[in-house]
Amino acid sequence: MKIINRRDIILFSVLLGLASASISAEIEIFPTHPIKLLVGFAAGGSSDTVARIMAPRLAEFLKQTIVIENKSGAGGNIASDFLIKAPADGYTIMLGTVGSLAVNQHLNKLNYDPVADTAALSMAVVFTNVLVVNANSDIRTLDDYIKQARPASTRLSFGSSGIGGSGHLAGELLKSAAGLSNQHIAYRGGAPAMNDLLGGVLPAIFSSPTDALQHIQSGKIRAIATTGAKRLEALPQVPTIAESGYPGFDATNWYAFVAPLKTPPEVIRKLNAAIIATLADPAVVTQLRKLGVDPTPSTPAEAARHIRTESEKWGIVVRNAKIKSDS
Q1: pLDDT digits (tens, 9 = 90+) for 162-171
Q2: DSSP H stretches of helix in 133-205
Q3: For residues 145-161, b (16+ Cβ closer than 10 Å) or e, as one string?
Q4: What predicted TM-score, i.e. pTM, was given to this entire model?
Q5: Domains (ranges, CATH) in the chain?
């Protein structure tokens, strides 16, 4: 057995001190090389669009390149799993969705907890979904929709971008609130669901405004109601479900920035400051609001609290509706 002498202990202490000083110095000058921004869905989707609007300005504030990496699949779980396993140094972050951060753990058996195993950086955007029908539909109000969706023999299905997504959950929440019998049809993204609605194959969709606005404005589809607590700024004439007879109804979609759990506080502070500055930039705000989404910067603590609260809320909906994953 080797005996460790005093000289070895002193040498170890010196080396440990030098290593700690090096790490502290690196944190102080963070970032020194490009930052990878993970998006859990394919290019062209809503979260990818938001990330690409923000990335150039975020890079300017951080004085470093932002590289967007799309790791699509499993409702955002592939990107989340990659993030959890990445070094906690601030060079890998993710723009997570309500599904990947607050819902998927209630649908799937994951080897990680998106709430407990990530460090929140800031909220990004908040927006509400829109219940839309084809322009040729005889459904013109939420009452019309409810009447057709309530009978046990109804053929009025509703579509969404996928199981566990915000549109699906909004539809299930309305089914519960109004005692409806219509069935959900899951698509692998908002675009194919919208294509079937436009083609008359699908009666209704709970869609994101980014997918629906252009078709509403062109008159190809009709907006019936929005799912948030207040009216959508881009569609001020469309009532909310809450004001249409279901007080308290609120199914809000959102994205938030997160990092690996043990990311140093000083790195989190720098990333948070850059995200807040980006979301306050007039050009970024204008681009985001044209999509029907509202910039919602926050502190890390506020973002963490929101993610946790939403996970609890949607966990109840998933269990009550007995929603099962398709994976």
Answers
A1: 888 889 999 9
A2: 142-149, 166-178, 190-198
A3: bbebbeeeeeebebbbb
A4: 0.81
A5: 33-126+254-321 (3.40.190.150), 130-244 (3.40.190.10)
